[in-house]
Amino acid sequence: MRQVPSYIAAAYCQTLLPVFSASVYANRRDQLSRTISNGVVLFMGARHAPMNYPHNWYPFRQDSSFLYYWGHPIADLAALVDADEGRHILFADSPSVDDVIWSGPQPEAAALADRVGAHEVRPSGDLEETLRTMKAAGRRVHYEPPYRVNTQVRVESLLGLGTGSAPHHASTKLIRAIVRQRSVKESREVRQIESALQVSHAMHTAAMRLVTTGALERDIAGHIEGIAIAGGGRLAFPCILTRRGEILHNHYYGNRLRNGDLVVHDSGASSPMQYASDITRTIPVSGTFSARQRAIYSLVLRAQEAAIGALRPGYRFLDAHLLAARSVAADLKDLGLMHGDTDEAVAQGAHALFFPHGLGHMMGLDVHDMEGLGEDLVGYGDSVKRSDQFGLAYLRLARALRAGHVITVEPGCYFIGALIDQWRAKRRHAAFINYAEVERWRTFGGVRIEDDVLVTPSGSCILGPPIPKAVLDVEAACAA
Ligand code: GLY
Ligand code: MN
Ligand code: MN
Q1: Tens digit of each residue's pLDDT (9 = 90 or more) over 380-401
Q2: How far is CA 451 from CA 5, 138, 349, 454, 469, in A?
Q3: What would the pLDDT profile of 244-259 be if each residue is shown by its tens digit?
Q4: Looking at the predicted structure, is the pLDDT value of residue 2 above 70?
Q5: Between 471-479 and 187-210, two packed helices, what is the crossing angle to 10 degrees?
C-alpha cells in the first residue's frame, strides 16, 4: 500500500473527520466477505441532501455502514466488496480545482483508498459499467435497504431495477451479516462512545444549571447544541428539552419554564467519528423535587436500576423490559394509581398507560443503531417475535444480549391526557388502573431516565462519566 503524501495527510486532517487505521476497515470487510461467501456487496455512500435548494444542504451525514466498513465521511462515494475474488474497490473522484476553490484542499482518490485499505480505486463514473459486467456474469449483488430516496433511485438505476423496488430486493443475508458484526462493539468503538459521553456529561450538567424559573426552553436547547459542536462532533439526534415531557419525542422549545415544572432533557453528543450517545435526565425547575415529583422520579430510577442490574450475556432485553414494567407497576400500586395483581397487570399491558414505550435500543454509529436495516432483524432476530400489545409493540430491542452490545436503558412514567381519556372512556384495564386517582395526576407531565450501557462478559456497566441521577445529586447539580 502506498503512503499518503504528507501534504495530503495534512490537508486531510484539516478538512476531514478522522478514520481508524486501514487494517481496521480491511479486517471488517474481510470478515463480512467470509460471511457473505459469494457475490458482491454494494455500499452506497450518502450524497448531500438539499434543504431548500440544491446547494443549501442539510448537514452531511455519511451512511453508518459505509462509515463502519469504509471510514470516510465524504459525500458521493460508493464501494464494492467482491466476496468471490476477495477484492475491495472504492469508487471515488479526485478533486477538481473548483472543488478546492469552494471546499478547500481535498485528498486524491488514491489517498482515500489507501487510508481505508482498499485494493483498488476507480472513478465513480465506472460503477455502473462494473456492476453491469458483474450482473451479466450472473453475480449476485447484495445491498442494504436504502432509507433515502436519492440512494434508492440510484440503486435502481445502477442495477436496472423497477422504480420503487430497491427496498424489496435488499439482501437479508447481508443485513444479518452486518447486524451480527456491528452489534458487538470493538473496544475502539466503545472508546468513541465514551468520548461522546464526556460531551453529553457537559451538556446534561449545563442543563441542570440552566433550567430555572422563567428560562426559555430554546435558550437552554441552543446552549446544549453549542456544547455538542464545541466538543468536536454534534448532536446525535435533535435535542429534547421540554416542560411537556409526557410528549415522548417533543422537539418544540417555545415554552417558558415555570416554578413547579419538570423538564425532560433527552440529548446526546456524537463523537468526532460519529458514534452516538443518548442520555435522558429529568430536572425540577424549582431546583428541588416536590413530593409527587420525587415519588415518580424515584419509581423510574428504581425500574432503571433494576433493569441495568439484570443485564448480562444470554439475558433477553425483552425480559429486562418486563422487569422494569413490573417495577413501575408495583410502585404505581403503592401510590394508589394501579391496583390488582402486578404480574397480571403487566402481562395484560395495563402499565403501558404510564410507560408506553420500550426500555431501550442498541446504540453505536446510529443512535438507534442499524434501525435503517429493519427493526425486527436488528432487535429481534429469529428467536423472539414482536408483540402486538400496545406499549410492548414499541419495544425496539428484545433479543438475547451478547457481551459487547451497547444499549440504552430508558424507562419512563408519563401522564398523557389523550391516552388517559381514551382508556378511561373504554374502562380499559379498569381492573388494574385507578382512574379516579389518575385524574388527580393528569397534569403531572413525565419522567424519563436514560443511560448507555455496555454488556460485559459478566454483567453490564454504565458507560461514560457519571451524570447526576440520584435525587440529591440532581438537586445539587441544579444548585451548582
Ligand atoms: N433519544 C431518542 C431515544 O431515546 O430513543
Ligand atoms: Mn434518548
Ligand atoms: Mn434512547
Answers
A1: 999 899 999 999 999 999 999 9
A2: 43, 48, 24, 10, 10
A3: 999 999 999 999 999 9
A4: no
A5: 60
Cβ of residue 237 lying under 6 Å from some atom of ligand 1: yes
Which residues are registered as beta bridge partners of 279? 267
Atom of ligand 1 nearest to the CA of 450: 4
| Average confidence (pLDDT) over 364-372 | 98
- 140-163: average pLDDT: 97
Tell me the residues surrounding ligand 2 (ion) with CB < 5 Å. Answer: 266, 278, 450
CA 450 to ligand 3 center in whole angstroms = 7
Q: In this predicted structure, what is the pLDDT of residue 13?
A: 41
Q: Are 248 and 414 in contact (CB under 8 A)?
A: yes
DSSP letters spanning 210-248: H--TT-BHHHHHHHHHHHHHHTTSEESS--EEES-TTST
Which residues contact residue 403 at a Cβ distance below 8 angstroms, ignoring those fewer than 6 apart?
A: 184, 313, 455, 456, 457
Residue 421 Cα to ligand 3 middle (Å)? 27
The residue whose grid cell reads 458482491 is: 40
Specify whether the CB–CB gap between 276 and 61 falls below 8 A.
Answer: no
- Ligand 1 mutation target, pool 279, 280, 369, 378, most atoms within 8 A of CB: 280
- How far is CA 42 from each of CA 62, 88, 124, rounded to the nearest angstrom? 15, 10, 13
Reading the block at residue 42, the C-alpha cell is 454494494
CATH superfamily of 6-183: Creatinase/prolidase N-terminal domain (3.40.350.10)
Residue with cell 374502562: 427
Distance CA 21, CA 19 (A): 7
d(CA 405, CA 454): 6
CA distance 438 to 424: 10
4 in Cβ contact with 107 (< 8 Å): yes
Question: Residue 116 and residue 76: Cα distance in Å, rounded?
Answer: 16
Q: What is the pLDDT of residues 253-279, one digit of tens each?
A: 999 999 999 999 999 999 999 999 999
User: How far does residue 353's CA lie from ligand 3's centre (Å)?
Assistant: 20
Q: Where are the domains of the chain?
A: 6-183, 187-479
**Contact residues for 59 (Cβ-Cβ < 8 A; gap 6+):** 234
Instruction: Note the CATH architecture for domain 187-479.
Output: Alpha-Beta Complex (3.90)
